[in-house]
Design goal:
single chain; about 550 residues; mainly alpha; 3 domains; three-stranded antiparallel beta sheet; two-stranded antiparallel ribbon; 5 strands; elongated
């Protein structure tokens, strides 16, 4: 933004109330010490009623000459101190012009204060309507004996240019601040989630729209990374556990969502204040949610599903509807996890107190936002963190150890019962073969007797005891098989019920989203109706004003 000292009034040392003769006198004095061409340019602006309007609006409209001198003195020494002035003492566009000069020197470490400064400028700028500004300008012109502003349509055009200069000044200041800090400052422009934001000033609307353009590249890359990690995680699920690579992918997904939230939070608050939906965040929320239920019900990877909901899904709660779904999912999957009991694995995700994405030194302002993309390629630190051995295959009531467990995990569910029965039969046959092929104990068998070392004995106690133990083992194995079948049936019923709940939940979510879209359309229609009504009233007022001016003109011409 143009420095205040370059305003023609400040440059020549005059005010909007100064007469033409005073302006010419000051210009002659200034030409003795400054560039005569510059002096002539500024003198021409102030002495021409058609050219001086924008300079008058960029100055301190409505402020007395004494207070204006005090403000100018502070702007030269400590412009930040003006932020402490109350709105009763300094208000309207004059306050916005003065506070805008504090932007270059305001400390960036004071993020809440920086947010308050920007919002103060935006609100003060829009606190006065066209009629009030025209009255202030014409009042000063009357004292200076300059013609009043008749064409008030020129005022909105000048204000548009001034607001654009405010935006450029703020973005220029941001270019010297780390991009992630800029995001936090923009987030502070809006009240905390759940509070009413009220009307968004035009300057803040323009600023966030510009930020949104800068975030597009970042958003596309982060969404692509999230999609890739969502694809990798289920492929790394083994026997109810995630492999080392799976745990790393889940951790990277957590980092992506934390980083996503930190960069897009200003836009989330911006859209919520406007009553709009956060489409990309809601899309990512749905994708993570579906994966969590797929891990829990289809892959029996309940621990990973629970972490996915508790750590990842919790970063994407941008609306009350999503918060409701999150609480339901967390409770449902926690119940599944509790039902597994001791059979649950111990997959863990390393705690991340802060987002670990790269923060390059050159990532400053809006231009640095694309540099904040999360790098999902493992670093040396990540390799060290995930260098532990692969998790051992989970052994649960529905799995046989070793070779049988490996084969069972690759069979469709409908064939697993038959495989268990066949495996037990093969095990019994193998055990019988071991008993009857021992060279140390078996010599000959005939007629129901047992011959050891050539001596025939019908009441060999060791043989009978061995047979009893074998029968007990077989009975125990049969009972174990029955328990496994019952547990498998119960598990399949629970999974089927979970899938039905998931389908119902998705249908409910889609219905709520549709209702939200309809409400958004209704709000837009209502806002458009109000806008049309406001335009109609404005047009009526303008017509009345023109008629009043015409009557005044005729009265002055004809004396009636």
């Amino acid at each position: 933004m143009t420095a205040f000292r370059e305003n023609p009034f400040v440059y020549l040392g005059v005010s909007p109330s100064s007469s033409r003769s005073e302006i010419l006198e000051k210009a002659e004095e200034k030409a003795l010490t400054e560039d005569p061409d510059e002096v002539a340019k500024y003198r021409s602006i102030l002495t021409n009623p058609g050219k001086r309007l924008e300079s008058e609006l960029r100055y301190l409209p409505g402020v007395s000459d004494e207070e204006a001198n005090e403000i100018l003195a502070l702007l030269g020494k400590d412009p930040v101190s003006l932020c402490a002035w109350s709105k009763e003492r300094l208000s309207g566009i004059a306050r916005a012009n003065a506070l805008a000069q504090a932007l270059p020197s305001f400390p960036e470490t004071n993020e809440p204060g920086f947010s308050s400064l920007i919002r103060d400028i935006a609100e003060s700028f829009e606190s006065q309507d066209i009629a009030e500004l025209a009255s202030l300008v014409n009042g000063a012109r009357s004292r200076a004996h300059f013609p009043e502003v008749k064409d008030t349509d020129r005022i909105p055009e000048a204000l548009k240019e001034i607001r654009w200069d405010y935006q450029k000044a703020i973005e220029a200041r941001f270019n010297s601040i780390q991009s992630r800090r800029v995001a936090r400052i923009l987030t502070g422009l809006f009240p905390p989630k759940g509070e009413q934001a009220g009307i968004i000033p035009g300057l803040i609307d323009d600023l966030l729209s510009s930020y949104e353009v800068s975030v597009q590249s970042f958003a596309e890359k982060e969404m692509a990374s999230a999609a890739e990690l969502l694809r990798q995680i289920p492929a790394e699920c083994r026997n109810g556990h995630l492999t080392r690579r799976g745990v790393f992918a889940l951790t990277m997904l957590y980092r992506v969502t934390v980083n996503w939230n930190s960069v897009t939070l200003p836009l989330q608050r911006f859209r919520q204040a406007k009553g709009e939906a956060c489409r990309q965040t809601e899309s990512l929320f749905t994708a993570v949610r579906k994966l969590a239920y797929y891990l829990a019900t289809d892959l029996n990877c309940v621990d990973a599903a629970y972490l996915l909901v508790r750590r990842v899904l919790s970063q994407l709660l941008v609306s009350p509807v999503l918060e409701k779904h999150y609480r339901y999912d967390l409770e449902s999957i926690a119940g599944m996890r509790k039902g597994k009991g001791a059979a649950s694995g111990s997959d863990t995700i390393p705690e991340q107190k802060t987002v670990s994405s790269l923060e390059p030194a050159e990532a400053k302002g809006f231009k640095g936002i694309p540099l904040l993309v999360t790098d999902i390629v493992p670093t040396e630190e990540d390799e060290a963190a995930f260098r532990a051995p692969e998790p051992r295959t989970a052994v649960s009531a529905s799995r046989l150890p070793g070779f049988f467990s490996s084969l069972q995990s690759r069979l469709p569910k409908k064939h697993r019962k038959l495989w268990l029965i066949a495996a037990v039969i093969l095990l019994i046959v193998w055990m019988k073969g071991c008993v009857f092929s021992s060279d140390e104990d078996y010599a000959d068998y005939s007629g129901g007797g047992y011959r050891s070392g050539g001596a025939y004995s019908d009441d060999d106690e060791s043989y009978e005891e061995e047979q009893r133990e074998k029968e007990a083992r077989e009975a125990e194995e049969e009972a174990e098989l029955e328990r496994e079948e019952a547990e498998e049936e119960a598990r399949e019923e629970a999974e089927e019920e979970a899938r039905e709940r998931q389908a119902a939940l998705e249908a409910q979510f889609e219905a709520e989203q549709e209702e939200e879209r309809l409400r958004e359309l209704e709000r837009e229609e209502e806002m458009q109706r109000q806008l049309d009504e406001q335009r109609r009233r404005t047009q009526e007022l303008e017509n009345e004003l023109e008629e009043e001016q015409e009557r005044s003109r005729r009265s002055s011409l004809y004396g009636y």
